[in-house]
Amino acid sequence: MTAKTTRISQADARRLWLRAQRLGEAAPFGAGPAAVAAAIRHLGYVQIDTINVIERCHHHILWSRIPEYRASALEAVQSIEKSAFEYWAHALAYIRTDDYRFFVAAMDAWRIQPHPSFAKVDPDAYAALLTRIRDNGPLSLRDIDDQELVEKDHPWASRKPSKRLLTQGFWIGDLTISARTGMLRSYELTERHFGWTARPSPASPQDFAYYLLDRGLRTQGVVSLESMTYGDAPAKAEVARRVAERVARGSLVPVEIEGLARANHWAEPDALDELPSLLPATRVHILSPFDPLVIQRKRLSALFGYAHRFEAYVPAAKRVLGYFALPVLAGDRIVAAIDTKMDRKAGALIIQKWTWLVPETKALRSKVETALSRFERFQKMA
């Protein structure tokens, strides 16, 4: 028997997505380290990026959902509570430690077949690095004199190996990031950092598929195969099987979104039942271009009618929105993109370019300016 498809509007899909992203509430996770841990647990992961013309994106994403956010709370979650760790989701990200097992298979795959950039890693030098960390505690790149790790009987092998050694240890799971100061990372033995006798066993492909499915439903409301496996395309077939399984037993409902070409979305029945009682979104957010609402560009374009351009690596003459434009969410619309830069000496937020995507009104501009004032205070306090 074929499951009946539910038809919803794009506005309904946006409302479900915004609720799932917790962008419609004032402080959905509370405050302090507990709020940071709860946000990472709910979102599944929070992306990390190096660009810092404004506060870095991992802090920005958390602040958008935790109004009183401070960077020290994330530091506590990573280094003291150890309820989050760094690894690759669709990009480098903070992930809740309870989900570590879902990433062990990727670590094991890197160990079996290293990336070409690690093909020439000297196993003796790597073993010496692990011994040093075991004996002396966590290391950052600044702590290492590269000459200590270069083979003395091969003078031509003077290429500094420390970054490659640390990075290899991170990718294969021997090492974890125990602390981060800006973008400077300290590496510790994984088992010692978490107090484990051994790393968790890898999740099965089936369990990983359930993980992606449940994470997608929790953070997107209405999901597609593409949205759930963003960054994990090889998992599509297994996720599709899990979707079919849940549709067959009625815990997932096929959904067609008006205006989209294919009926290849799903939602939980309870979420669809709650649609009539969901209040319209009214809050204004200055979002990071790496925010979970923004990063899946095709999904954002399909549901919000806005195709975000990330132009940091675009030649200046070809930029449309600006070097690091931030989408502005007002209610359930992306109304503007504002290219900002923080003048840290002056303690002021500089507006480099403001692009309206909808007709400007006095009331709307006032709301966005209020949000920008909050955003500027965040830059000074995070």
Short structural description:
With 382 residues, this protein is of the alpha+beta class.
Task: Explain how this protein is built.
This protein has 382 residues and is of the alpha+beta class. It contains 14 helices and 14 strands. Helix 9 packs across helix 11. The termini are far apart.
Q: What would the keywords be for this entry?
A:
4-stranded mixed sheet; globular; 382 residues; 14 strands; 4-stranded antiparallel sheet; alpha+beta; single chain
**What is the end-to-end distance?**
54 Å
- Total number of strands: 14
Q: What value does the average pLDDT take?
A: 93
Outline type: globular
Layout of secondary structure:
Blueprint: E1 6-8, H1 10-20, H2 32-43, E2 45-47, H3 57-63, H4 71-81, E3 84-88, E4 92-96, H5 101-112, H6 123-136, E5 139-140, H7 162-171, E6 175-181, E7 184-189, H8 190-194, H9 205-220, E8 223-224, H10 225-228, H11 236-249, E9 253-257, E10 265-267, H12 269-273, E11 284-286, H13 297-304, E12 325-330, E13 333-343, E14 348-356, H14 362-381
Parallel strand pairs: 1-9
Antiparallel strand pairs: 2-4, 3-4, 5-7, 6-7, 8-10, 9-10, 11-12, 12-13, 13-14
Helix pairs in contact: 1-9, 2-4, 9-11
